[in-house]
Amino acid sequence: MPNLFNPLKLGAIELPNRILMAPLTRARAGREGVPNDLMARYYAQRAGAGLIISEATGISREGLGWPDAPGLWNQDQVDGWKKVTAAVHKEGGRIVAQLWHMGRVVHSDLGGGQPVSSSATTAPDFAHTYEGKKPYEEARALTQADIDRILGDYARAARNAIDAGFDGVQIHGANGYLVDQFLRDSANFRNDDYGGSIANRLRFARMVLEAVGGEIGIDRVGIRLSPNILVQGVEDSDPIALYTELAKLLEELKVPWIELREPYKPTASGSIPTAPVSPAMRAHYSGKIVINSDYDWTDARHRIEGGTADAVSIGRLFIANPDLVHRIATNAPLNAGDSKTFYEGGATGYVDYPFLTEQVAA
Ligand SMILES: Cc1cc2nc3c(=O)[nH]c(=O)nc-3n(C[C@H](O)[C@H](O)[C@H](O)COP(=O)(O)O)c2cc1C
Asked: Which spans of this chain does the record mark as coiled coil (predicted)?
């Protein structure tokens, strides 16, 4: 029976354990989105993860709507990421870049022009800008020429990720961003080849995976999905049907691993997500499945032993516990995180969470 401390292969990437660090936006890259020494230190501290999935990283100015989040569309950003990947590798870790186009949830204040999406829609709630939160603007529906350009942006970002020393990439197909805005029918109202039927709504994801896989090899590509939650106004009327077809597509394209943000118990606010779809996906997909959201080790182990998952990724606890894998292995107490410093910038709440060894010595 595989457990959390058995090795795992995700395509070309070999993991020494099955506890991954989930992608976590930390907003420390400055206005130009260039990673720096502080970020290298933060990621290197967490190199004990089976695999680090980087914070979401913009593939273009148009696609990046989070203040101080990093990018991967120019040479300065590639050079900045080189510091991060070198520091992680020096500590014996592995890291993939999460490639991000936020679609309609980018505000024009960030310099990318009118936001774009599958359809002309406006996201609910408020956009992040350097001047605080502002109402979302109506997105422009992408033309075929736009889609071709964006596929080029994905391929360039993937190439840049490899040039920057990443072990691979993860397409951000979750959480209501551009890929998700094509996938799910609460945001996609197109009546051309990209909308309507499930096969049509899958087309953009297929093309992104083909563009990125064609550029760097599909054995270095994964995708993140959030099948059973409503995020930023994006959900689907029939998640089981949609994600079963997507599982078949991922099998056909030989995508080696997927990460599912799939809450399975009531959230802190009390809302109960719909049933996990990973068991249905498993029937059609033979790649590796990484599960995420509020997992404790016993539940994660049971899912892995039951065969519906291969690994777990952990978000918030990795912020507060740089040596999380060691703490789990030794059943050690965990540091509590401070959500006020998640996106605040600077070293506090970023690189100053103590390692167990420091606490024992103190
Ligand atoms: C501060 C913060 C930043 C996040 N940034 C990202 C991100 O960049 N990309 C992404 O796909 N999910 C992001 N998420 C979601 C997490 O990856 C993860 O799905 C969520 O925290 C649930 O997992 P957990 O219960 O282990 O924390 C973020 C969550 C938090 C708390």
From this structure: none
- Supply the residue whose CA is at minimum distance from atom 14 of ligand 1: 24
Cα-atom radius of gyration of the chain, to the nearest Å?
Answer: 19
| Residue from 42, 43, 136, 177 carrying the catalytic annotation | 177
Number of domains into which the chain is organized: 1
Neighbours of 347 (CB within 10 A): 12
Say how many Å lie between the CA of residue 293 and the centre of ligand 1. Answer: 8
- Residue 359: the pLDDT is 79
* pLDDT, tens digit (0-9, with 9 covering 90-100), for 78-121: 999 999 999 999 999 999 999 999 999 999 999 999 999 999 99
Q: What is the pLDDT of residue 73?
A: 98
In contact, 244 and 278? CB cutoff 8 Å? no
pLDDT in tens, 299-310: 999 999 999 999
For residue 68, the domain's CATH number is 3.20.20.70
* Residue 1 within any structural domain of the chain: no
Q: Which domain holds residue 80?
A: 8-361
Position 97 in a domain = yes
